[in-house]
Amino acid sequence: xxxxxxxxxxxxxxxxxxxxxxxxxxxxxxxxxxxxxxxxxxxxxxxxxxxxxxxxxxxxxxxxxxxxxxxxxxxxxxxxxxxxxxxxxxxxxxxxxxxxxxxxxxxxxxxxxxxxxxxxxxxxxxxxxxxxxxxxxxxxxxxxxxxxxxxxxxxxxxxxxxxxxxxxxxxxxxxxxxxxxxxxxxxxxxxxxxxxxxxxxxxxxxxxxxxxxxxxxxxxxxxxxxxxxxxxxxxxxxxxxxxxxxxxxxxxxxxxxxxxxxxxxxxxxxxxxxxxxxxxxxxxxxxxxxxxxxxxxxxxxxxxxxxxxxxxxxxxxxxxxxxxxxxxxxxxxxxxxxxxxxx
Length: 343
What we know:
CATH architecture of the largest domain: Alpha-Beta Complex
Strand content: 15-25%
Number of domains: 2
Structural class: alpha/beta
Number of helices: 12
Shape: globular
Order of helices and strands: EEEHEEHEHEHHEHEHEHEHEHEHEHE
CATH superfamily of the largest domain: Medium-chain alcohol dehydrogenases, catalytic domain
Largest sheet: 7 strands, mixed
């Protein structure tokens, strides 16, 4: 089968053997659509030390069950499924507490430590947990981002503990930030503020009615603007979804005293926590990789028309053209947000 393989700073579309069931809780999925994630670029660029040389990349996908292990009872051959970006057993200390990113038997494995989804077929461990059936009225495209960036956006809103009447500021109007805005609407905040230096993305946030206000910190005093909207207090909750050079600093500066600051972004450099400057603000910082435990709920919200992420797909590329897709994604060609890879 065709597969995109990573070898230390290079990628190659090559032939790989069809995956096999290894454990009775495995499933083999025929990939229908996948996507490229910034995390894939982090692997290629050497910022993910645990990534294993020679793996098939990719962890964001939907597809059809082709084969199931003997212990799988909730899935059948032919089922349409959305994949969780995390591999988790559901039984260990962390899984039982909902911290599936820290699963003692899994974590971020697909496309990192084991072969991922940018191939015609992929083996999914603990498939009874990590695969969710797609409702009949939800297309593959509708469901594509459920197990990764949509879950990450929900995770950001959840970490922020967004409540009715809150002012929720999102730094980064990229795919995860836009999903955070979409998910925050479920909790009825008074205002959602999008912050980015990319005017195209800010306009998209406004056009899609995901943000009530948009600000470019390169063109305004962002702290002043936020205070003007909040009677001088600052945002009730801030989701940092950008991972830029100064975005962590912006996050804590625009937050009001006793606010929640959720750091969802993946950084390439260490960040400074200037405790003397923020002393007395009593901020609550929450960080981490996504605990994507709400996939079924998110699919139900998509099915009910509450959430739609189709607008994130800027272009579609065939698997044969995936290397070109990577090049275009890295360069943000035509202001791209996400690409769908077709099979």
